[in-house]
């Protein structure tokens, strides 16, 4: 466990008061052209994210949550929005407002960078408009995965009570012009953060670890249309990694060091899927291994080590992640 007195950072803070803007349902309906299907960025777990443009011309992502069944649900949603909106971190998408109206489903409004989602860039078959922003080569994919895991680990281990995502998908990962991650789409109604029992927290933690395992496979494959994670695991176990690597990465033309990194990355994804359920694999383990892997990556001098250190500035978590894999044991 972490000492709460040490849980202070330059890049993450939790303000005492929620300062989110309150939107009317009509405003957000207009921003998304009536929540039309063509504006959908993500749909799962009874929630949907839409791209929109609000009155001042700002591009936003509007997360439409499950409808509240009673006043308790409504209070829970308001409480969790307040917690999420108070997070100030370079890799968490800022919540700029919400709509809480008893006549409608709750809506959360996130900033939406112009570079789209990770899904947009991985699934080039959805359209060519993202190609002008640059190709997701291996080093960019590795940096993106490292930022995701490191940020989620921070929220798991250094926030009390911990914050879980439990909706981690490539469509919830926004990218800015520098391909830095902005995580959005946090699940809201799944649990009561303040009154969550240890057993429930363990379930949510392992769900996030499993989800990032699936996400790591998608980053390798370039698509979420694999027959199943089980088939991907079989290919990895049989030494046929090249059969699941995104053709755009030109695996066989990559230098040997890059091929080895992809193998290590795939092995990590495998362990997330196999060992998340029994707690043998935590998000801090995922973050630690990706940080070490990214530190070994050199792409024309474009290494994000300093960015990662900024992410964990003054954090005991950075010290724990920096330890060798065999030198620590996280409960």
UniProtKB/TrEMBL annotation:
Keyword Methyltransferase appears in the UniProt entry: no
Domain Protein kinase stretches: 35-268
PROSITE patterns documented for this protein: PROTEIN_KINASE_DOM
Regions that span the bilayer: none
Record carries keyword Signal: no
Protein keywords: ATP-binding, Nucleotide-binding
Chain segments annotated as coiled-coil in the UniProt record: none
GO MF entry, a single one: protein kinase activity
Superkingdom field: Eukaryota
Name the UniProt record assigns to this protein: Protein kinase domain-containing protein
Species of the source: Trifolium subterraneum (Subterranean clover)
């Amino acid at each position: 466990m972490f000492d709460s007195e040490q849980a202070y950072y330059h890049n993450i803070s939790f303000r005492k008061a929620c300062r989110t803007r309150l939107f009317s349902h009509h405003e957000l309906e207009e921003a998304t052209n009536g929540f039309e299907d063509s504006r959908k960025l993500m749909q799962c777990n009874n929630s949907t994210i839409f791209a929109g443009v609000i009155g001042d011309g700002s591009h936003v992502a509007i997360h439409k949550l499950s409808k509240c069944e009673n006043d308790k649900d409504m209070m829970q949603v308001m409480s969790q929005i307040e917690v999420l909106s108070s997070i100030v971190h370079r890799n968490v998408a800022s919540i700029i407002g919400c709509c809480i109206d008893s006549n409608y489903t709750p809506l959360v409004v996130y900033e939406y960078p112009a570079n789209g989602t990770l899904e947009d860039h991985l699934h080039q078959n959805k359209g060519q408009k993202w190609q002008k922003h640059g190709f997701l080569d291996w080093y960019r994919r590795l940096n993106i995965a490292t930022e995701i895991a490191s940020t989620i680990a921070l929220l798991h281990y250094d926030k009390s009570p911990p914050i879980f995502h439990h909706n981690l998908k490539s469509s919830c990962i926004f990218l800015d012009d520098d391909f830095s991650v902005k995580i959005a789409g946090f699940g809201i109604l799944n649990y009561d953060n303040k009154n969550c029992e240890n057993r429930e927290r363990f379930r949510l933690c392992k769900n996030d670890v499993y989800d990032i395992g699936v996400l790591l496979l998608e980053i390798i494959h370039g698509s979420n249309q694999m027959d199943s994670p089980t088939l991907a695991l079989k290919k990895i176990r049989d030494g046929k990694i090249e059969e699941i690597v995104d053709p755009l990465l030109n695996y066989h033309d990559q230098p040997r060091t890059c091929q080895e990194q992809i193998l290590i990355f795939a092995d990590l994804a495998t362990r997330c899927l196999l060992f998340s359920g029994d707690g043998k694999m935590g998000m801090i383990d995922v973050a630690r291994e990706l940080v070490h892997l990214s530190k070994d990556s050199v792409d024309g001098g474009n290494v994000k080590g300093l960015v990662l250190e900024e992410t964990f500035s003054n954090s005991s978590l950075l010290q724990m992640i920096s330890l060798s894999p065999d030198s620590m044991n996280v409960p």
